[in-house]
Specification:
Number of helices of chain A: 14
Structural class of chain A: mainly alpha
Distance between the termini of chain B: 29 Å
Strand content of chain A: under 5%
Strand order of the largest sheet of chain A: 1-2
Number of strands of chain B: 19
Largest sheet of chain B: 8 strands, mixed
Distance between the termini of chain A: 21 Å
Helix content of chain B: 25-40%
CATH architecture of the largest domain in chain B: 3-Layer(bba) Sandwich
Shape of chain B: elongated
Order of helices and strands of chain A: HHHHHHHHHEEHHHHH
Structural class of chain B: alpha/beta
Number of domains of chain B: 2
Number of strands of chain A: 2
CATH topology of the largest domain in chain B: FAD/NAD(P)-binding domain
Largest interface: A-B, 40 and 45 residues
Oligomer: heterodimer
CATH superfamily of the largest domain in chain B: FAD/NAD(P)-binding domain
Helix content of chain A: 55-70%
Chain lengths: ~375, ~475
């Protein structure tokens, strides 16, 4: 049988690995049933295909938002012998996507040891900043410095360290997602993409459209009840993160363009943005962690819990240490708090391309492909009779 | 503790009855024979509700007036129906969806491949299991007591009046009872007995059951034995030709094979036996179960060539694929020479026309018995595909006679406190035949009626007290 549309970078010839073959097996069942079409984009995208090659499988896996609705609604879910569990099957392939397309390739295996990687990165970063601090202050406590961070870590050192770490993370993710895009989408897909498709993908990603369940009541957590909790906590997390990033950007502008060095007063724009973002980054990840701990064990892949929880824990460490730093920046504990906060941020940046953060990048790409694909004619031959 | 209303069954009709009785203020115990993971009976495999409507309604386009619905029902049942009860179900289908939504059911426009139902059927988002889940959540929230793994063995009756239900040594009393425990299609011994022996074979031994394994018909048999009035023929069942590799139970929707009208269908002797192109597939799929059931060994083989690929809903199991017809015959275990002869005869009889699967086209055979009257194109383009087919039983028609209050009848007299809803009484309206979504219309309408009637009998004063007494 032929697929409805030719897939460039065609990976069909390549043998499927076990987790990919499992998605293929389950998609054949889903495609003959289709009851879940209303929940999200995965199933309408599935119906445009008759076969599921490697590229289709990775595309669909990353389009899946892991909401759990299709598992609870599935007449073929375990204990049925067909044992359909799309959220779990897709989750397992997603880790494979992240590993396969990671740059540099050698670091791809970090996804499978995410807990360890996060811990090591945090410990190394913390050691680095504590040593640097001890070299300046001679101890963990110091005389109050009126919130002047640069008295401990020179601005140039910080800008270089974090600029390099963030730049590397952005580059690694960009290369990874570009490789992914080349594998799943036609060569000219992006150039030929209508503006409406780009707008829709952006909208769907920023609104987390596919965590609304298709009916607006949300997704599933501990049982078949729908809740908007994950969507809301994720919004707090994401927009909190973006506000923190904005605070840093504004502060950088102040520093270089306005020659206005930190510390900034409480009512200043960088502090206001950072505080709002920090609160979002406390409430959001705390909520996500709470949901993650209570989630129906059938939903996910237990092996990925360190990946998910490690990332959430690191975000919490960043936000809590950041807010603590703001509260006690004029005390003798500033150096210690600053070291912890900077270490958390550095560990976060270093692990961005090899941890849970990657899901947002690959999912956005999958959403863009879906936004483009759904505007193309579907299978013209499947008679609607 | 004695409950006001006991509901026996755990599918759509049972849940509708339990919810209505509870909303009317009655205390309700629901007994589901299945464990929690398998709850919901055949309702978990459904996907839509056939709805009357006089104007476009949210997910439903245009209009589907009462008279048209009734005519459709009359046509599919060949008149084996009860007009009064049928019209009750039809009218109820136009007003029940607000109530369903309040209990958490979500509707959506038709699924891909089902646009022909956009006017007549409202689809459940996520299918029937999502509906069942929603009803159970709502029932729990409202305080309906639910027991799983609770298959009732028998009812204790006193002159047509319900007294108690028995599960093993346990005796459960209630003031009124709704039996909504499905048909008997999962009971293979009963199917065997109903279909009997034909030409030295027991056809029912080769049937697969598309739905739940828990519809054993225990109470149906006991009640008929105890003098309850029955409707329907035990040998009548809704049957579809499904993939022979489907599981014995719960294969559901995905095991159907939708390429019959695009190719030819052979029996065990590699002979054709019916016009594959008689009419559009949605109008014909339900006769093929019975057609295959009448063939030797109760098996058929749907054969297509690569021209058909992509024109039908993808099947759940891959077909036997072959580069030549001989290889296909060997792969399917058919006599090679016989199959080549049948295909050659068919190919030679095909008259050239303009193929169009969306209309009753002019591609037909000439001088062939049986003919293929539409979409007949030579089977000549490799690769070839073959799918073995078995009869798949969806549900049985034998049921309990009821009136407009859903009361079970004994010797023509309605029981005071025993009611029936869903598949166990659908035969009153659907004596034979089927049309998509009508089983859920009947189950919803009579489940709600039975629940209200049971509550009224059991706790007549509670009705005014209930804040939920809803239409």
């Amino acid at each position: 049988m032929q697929p409805f549309e030719a897939q460039p970078g065609d990976a069909r010839a390549t043998a499927l690995r076990a987790d990919e073959a499992e998605v293929d097996r389950q998609m054949q069942i889903c495609n003959a049933c289709r009851y879940c079409e209303g929940f999200c984009a995965v199933f309408p995208a599935m119906t445009r295909r008759l076969e599921f090659g490697k590229a289709d499988i990775h595309y669909l896996a990353n389009l899946c938002h892991h909401c759990g609705a299709c598992l609870h609604a599935c007449q073929y879910a375990p204990p049925h012998e067909f044992a359909v569990n799309i959220p779990r099957a897709m989750a397992r392939v997603r880790v494979q996507t992240y590993s396969d397309y990671a740059w540099p390739a050698a670091l791809g295996s970090l996804y499978r040891h995410a807990g360890l990687a996060t811990a090591l990165a945090s410990a190394a970063a913390l050691t680095l900043f504590l040593v640097l601090m001890l070299m300046t202050t001679g101890g963990l406590w110091h005389a109050p410095l009126a919130g002047n961070f640069y008295a401990i870590f020179p601005h140039r050192t910080l800008a270089l360290t974090f600029g390099a770490a963030f730049g590397f993370a952005a580059l690694a993710l960009a290369i990874g997602v570009t490789r992914f895009w080349r594998a799943v989408a036609p060569a000219d897909a992006l150039r030929a993409a209508p503006g409406a498709a780009l707008a829709q993908a952006t909208h769907d990603a920023l609104r987390l459209k596919y965590l609304d369940g298709g009916h607006g009541k949300g997704c599933n957590e501990s049982d078949d009840r729908f809740t908007l909790a994950r969507r809301r906590f994720h919004h707090l997390t994401f927009y909190g993160f973006m506000l923190c990033l904005a605070a840093t950007c504004v502060a950088t502008l102040y520093h270089y363009a306005l020659r206005l060095p930190a510390p900034y007063p409480l009512g200043s724009l960088p502090v206001l943005l950072g505080t709002a973002g920090g609160i979002g980054l406390v409430v959001g990840p705390a909520g996500l962690l709470w949901l993650n701990l209570r989630r129906d064990p059938a939903h996910g892949d237990v092996a990925q819990q360190p990946l998910e929880r490690g990332f959430i824990a690191l975000l919490l460490l960043v936000s809590v240490s950041g807010l603590a730093l703001l509260a006690w920046r004029e005390s003798g504990a500033m150096g210690l708090l600053l070291s912890i906060h900077l270490a958390a941020v550095l560990a976060l940046f270093l692990t961005l391309p090899y941890g849970k953060f990657a899901h947002g990048v690959y999912r956005s790409a999958a959403l863009l492909k879906w936004a483009i694909e759904r505007r193309e004619p579907g299978n013209p031959r499947l008679a609607e009779d | 503790m004695k409950h006001d209303v006991l509901v026996i069954g755990g599918g759509n009709a049972a849940l509708c009855a339990a919810l209505m009785a509870r909303e009317a203020g009655a205390s309700v115990l629901l007994l589901e024979a299945a464990p929690r993971a398998w709850r919901g009976g055949n309702s978990a495999h459904t996907r839509n509700l056939r709805c009357m409507h006089d104007a476009p309604q949210d997910v439903l386009v245009e209009a589907y007036p009462e008279e048209e619905f009734w005519q459709d029902l009359l046509k599919v049942t060949s008149g084996v129906t009860d007009e009064r009860l049928a019209r009750i179900a039809i009218r109820a289908s136009s007003i029940c969806r607000g109530w369903m939504r309040r209990h958490g059911v979500n509707f959506q426009p038709p699924l891909s491949g089902t646009l022909h139902l956009a006017r007549t059927n409202a689809f459940f988002m996520g299918g029937g299991k999502a509906l069942v889940n929603a009803y159970y959540r709502s029932a729990e929230d409202l305080g309906v007591r639910i027991r799983y793994d609770a298959p009732v063995d028998s009812l204790e009756l006193d002159d047509g009046r319900f007294v108690a239900a028995r599960i093993g040594a346990e005796r459960i009393e209630a003031r009124a009872c709704v039996v909504a425990a499905g048909g008997f299609e999962s009971n293979r011994a009963w199917l065997r007995e109903a279909w009997g022996e034909v030409n030295g074979e027991w056809p029912a031994d080769n049937f697969l059951i598309r739905g739940t394994r828990f519809n054993q018909g225990v109470l149906l048999r006991q009640l008929i034995g105890a003098g309850a009035d029955a409707v329907g023929d035990p040998a009548q069942a809704h049957m579809v030709a499904i993939d022979a590799r489907a599981p014995l139970y719960d294969g559901g929707i995905c095991t159907r094979v939708d390429c019959v009208s695009l190719g030819i269908v052979l029996n065990r002797n590699a002979e054709r036996f019916y016009d594959e192109g008689e009419d559009f597939w949605p109008k014909r799929y339900a006769i093929w179960g019975r057609l295959v059931a009448r063939q030797p060994g109760q098996i058929g083989y749907s054969i297509i060539d690569s021209k058909a690929v992509g024109r039908f809903m993808p099947p759940v199991f891959p077909g036997v694929k072959a580069k030549t017809l001989g290889e296909l015959a060997r792969g399917l275990g058919l006599d090679e020479a016989a199959m080549l002869r049948t295909v050659a005869d068919f190919n030679a009889a095909c008259r050239a026309g303009s193929f169009d699967h969306a209309v009753l086209d002019d591609c037909r055979t000439e001088g062939l018995t049986p003919p293929k009257t539409h979409w007949a194109r030579p089977i000549d383009t490799a690769p070839y595909y073959g799918y073995a087919l078995r009869p798949g039983v969806t549900f049985t028609y034998l049921g309990l006679k009821v009136d407009e209050r859903a009361a079970v009848h004994f010797g023509g007299k309605p029981s005071r406190n025993l009611f029936a809803a869903g598949e166990v009484m659908a035969g009153n309206i659907l004596g034979k035949g089927y049309t998509a979504g009508v089983g859920m219309s009947i189950g919803t309408a009579f489940g709600r009626i039975a629940g209200s009637a049971a509550a009224l009998v059991a706790a007549p004063r509670a009705r005014q007290a209930s804040p939920h007494a809803a239409v």
